[in-house]
Amino acid sequence: MPAYLFLPNTNLSCDGSVQNRVEWHCYLVRQSRWRILRATPTHLPAITALYQADAFPHAWGDTKRIAPLFESAEVSGGFTLVAIQDGQTIGHLELSLEHGEDQLSGFITGLEVHHRIRRRGVGRGLVETAMSILARQGIQSLQVFPEDHAAAAFYTALGFTPSELCWDLTIDTTQRLPQLAAIAPRQYPMSTWQHQFDGYHHCAGQFLPAHYCWERSRQARALNFPEGEGTGAWILEGGALLIVDTHFTHLLLPPSLHPLAPEAFPAWMALIHSAQERGAAYLRTVVSPDVATALGWTHPQVCHGYESWQRLSRGIAP
């Protein structure tokens, strides 16, 4: 087993979103002479170069969008790790903190190891370091959506097990969709993330990274990126929360409201209407298979395409 050495500095800082924590550097002692530490803004160009070297289609390879993603993870209460060998960045892990109905969970939103350094324990070291940090914060679970079979096998080998299944749906909003109910009007926008809504339940499962998605949209708007136009978060009449981010439209419901209860249908109509308002022909959202089926969104004339996502989860011992 690799040995981890935590070296906290003397400054106790508050991340502004979850809890006070000691700033730290975490080094992984190995014969290969690489180390893992918490990334700072000075590491961002090297992280960008890592993704560009691997030709990976991820926003971390975009020099204009790297800082907003870094900030999104930090604002959620999460962190970014880098693996360094001989002064070169050879690995990267991005993690946000997400709020379920009654607990916090870590959520891996990005993991990459340079293609020439793979299968040498760097990815394992990044994940295990992240779990050690979460354990020190009293967080008891870590979640991830693996992007392919190879990634799923990697996480399975680390003890992750299948949890909720959800569908990434692309819905054709130009087709005649079932009119479930009247559209729930928006009551007011959320200009900052308001933690009284942390207990809301995402319609695809507990721990979708909604906080991270909201923050990356706010950053995109602030920096006038084209994809930031029309994004935001609103409280709907009836208490649901609508988040339009740069890639998806999310619906979060109070814990007491089932996604298929009649009282929830106006919120679903508001989700569809948000795309129609923007003049978007398609809406991309993430829901559970039973919800998609019940809403009639699996019909070929409505569903432009979908991808099945299997969330993997691992408990973290205190």
Task: Present the secondary structure layout.
Blueprint: E1 3-14, E2 20-29, E3 34-38, H1 44-53, H2 66-75, E4 79-85, E5 88-99, E6 104-113, H3 122-136, E7 141-144, H4 149-157, E8 161-172, E9 186-189, E10 201-202, H5 210-222, E11 232-236, E12 241-244, E13 249-253, H6 265-277, E14 282-287, H7 289-294, E15 303-315
Parallel strand pairs: 6-7
Antiparallel strand pairs: 1-2, 3-4, 4-5, 5-6, 7-15, 8-14, 8-15, 9-11, 10-13, 11-12, 12-13
Structure description:
The protein is built from 7 helices and 15 strands. The protein is of the alpha+beta class. Helix 2 packs across helix 5.
- Helical residues, percent: 10-25%
Morphology:
globular
CATH architecture of the largest domain: 3-Layer(aba) Sandwich
How many helices in DSSP terms? Answer: 7
Q: Tally the structural domains.
A: 2
| Strand order across the largest sheet | 3-4-5-6-7-15-8-14
N-to-C CA distance: 18 Å
Give the H and E element order.
EEEHHEEEHEHEEEHEEEHEHE
Estimate what percentage of residues fall within beta strands.
25-35%
